[in-house]
Amino acid sequence: MPTLYDSRLSGNGWKVRLLLSHLKLPYQRHILDIAAGQTKTPAFLQLNSLARIPVLLLDDASTIRESNAILWYLATGSSYLPAAPLAQARVLEWLFFEQYDHLKNMARPRYLVSIAKVSDEFTQELMSLRQGGEKALSTMERQLARTPFLCGADYTIADIALFPYTSMAAMGGYDLNGYPAIKDWVKRVRAQPGFIELLDHRD
């Protein structure tokens, strides 16, 4: 049985757990306390020398790092990753967009505003991040005004990758009321079979 190393509040870990739940795949979960330095222990650094979660440890002791790489691996052969090369390229476009244009601009404000609660000390950084974040949200809004999911009619790992930090945007000071197509998309993702929240009763 594979083991997923993540943390309680990680949107990147949530992505992977969402897909595992959709696929009904059994796994063990190892929750690390990042603030306590548990990603910097010698044991974890053997799994990921970059000291980042999530990491998926497979039964043969192979490891997969980076959340979107884990999504791709798990989704291969399933309905969450299309088989046609061009359709796969469309998924990859959104996965690269998520990493380059979306993630930092959404995750960092969430951390500063709602987790560390130090937004007053980082006003200039937050202003810059939110400019990038609004641009990313506008890109998603234009697509989702045309299609129910990011790659068209079907729910894929592109949606799973972009869902966590988009759905938590308000925690970083964003107002999704100006993005009606995104708000409808969030509802559609939450309605997918096997959807799970970031935190459940065990957390």
List the helices and strands and how they pair.
Blueprint: E1 3-6, H1 11-23, E2 28-31, H2 42-47, E3 55-57, E4 63-65, H3 67-75, H4 85-115, H5 123-144, H6 157-167, H7 180-190
Helix pairs in contact: 1-3, 1-6, 4-5, 4-6, 5-7, 6-7
What does this structure look like?
- With 203 residues, the chain is α+β, with helices and mostly antiparallel strands.
- It contains seven helices and four strands, in the order E-H-E-H-E-E-H-H-H-H-H.
- Helix content is 51%, strand content 7%.
- The chain has a four-stranded mixed beta sheet with strand order 2-1-3-4.
- Strand 1, helix 1 and strand 2 form a beta-alpha-beta unit.
- Helix 1 crosses helix 6 (157-167), helix 4 packs parallel to helix 6 (157-167) and helix 5 packs across helix 7.
Q: Please tell me what the overall shape is.
A: globular
The topology string of helices and strands comes to EHEHEEHHHHH
What is the beta-strand fraction?
Answer: 5-15%
Kindly state the number of beta strands: 4
How confident is the prediction overall: mean pLDDT?
A: 96
Q: What is the helix fraction of residues, given as a range?
A: 40-55%
The spatial strand order of the largest sheet comes to 2-1-3-4
Which structural class do the helices and strands define?
A: alpha+beta
Query: Which runs of at least 5 residues are low in confidence (pLDDT < 50)?
Result: none
Please give the radius of gyration in angstroms.
17 Å
Largest sheet: 4 strands, mixed
